[in-house]
Amino acid sequence: MQRYLGFIVKFAISVALIAYMATTFDLGDAAQRMAQADMRWLAVSAVIFTALLANNSLRWEIVIWALGSRLGFWAALRMIYIAAFFNQALPSTIGGDAARMVLSRRAGLSLATAVNSVMLERVVAVLGLILLVVVTQPFLLARIGDNPAKYVFPLLAAAGIGGICFLMMLDRTPERWRKWTVVRGIVQLGADAKSLFLHPGYAAGAIMLGVTGQLLVSAMFYTLAQALNLDHVDLLDCIVLVPPVILITTIPISIAGWGLREGAMVTLFAFVGVAQGDAFVLSILFGVVSLVLSLPAGLVWLASGGNKKQAGDDPN
Hints:
Largest sheet: none
Order of helices and strands: HHHHHHHHHHHHHHH
Low-confidence stretches: 306-316
Number of helices: 15
Helix content: over 70%
Structural class: mainly alpha
């Protein structure tokens, strides 16, 4: 039972948040509006989703290069897509990152590289998200006014930089503690963080792709807003407001961000005059589209997950 406790708690939080908002918004009306969404804009959203997968695959591949290994772009893309399936479509205790670790290990990466590359890729993704939030903060403040939230994101940026510095110091762990396997793994993570962040080319490329990934997510929200005929939502609004929403959903207390995302969308998009019901429907549609587009990855997983040669290209 303890094994599933974390999932049960997250699931309960997501259900509670959605149920609470459902008392305010008409879910039947939301479903009808999504059913009437413009299919042309939904198709554009699917194209952006594909571009996002490619962006994130290249970002992971750059991290793997920094650690002195190779996986191959198409293998990375396949695993990123399977990870999206685990994150969005499966109510399981196995996350997409864990799936990537397993599949990349089967593809020939060392255990340390398989684990650390995924962990560092997630760090880079969050760092790119924080960077975009900080850069767009003047536009955010123009929309929300003199709000105490203006202090939050610079502090997050400082915390992000401090966290990276801390990661790079882990390889200085005293020798007498390295007799434990876990400690040796932490030391290797510190060394790998230095290999990534102290190499200007790798660091700049990975962080840039962290930023472009968030821009693609923002563009996806914009196309879905157009699909719902929310013409008063412009692309700049999405670039400014979506990254803080995504930053909030990185808090690991719900299933795939469900509930947290809807609450954040309703709160933040209200500052640009988006009705609460519209923001709620937009957030739900984003979750549904992401879920539907991730489902075919289940077939990719069944076809490649159990076979080492099919799971990825030869990294050597």
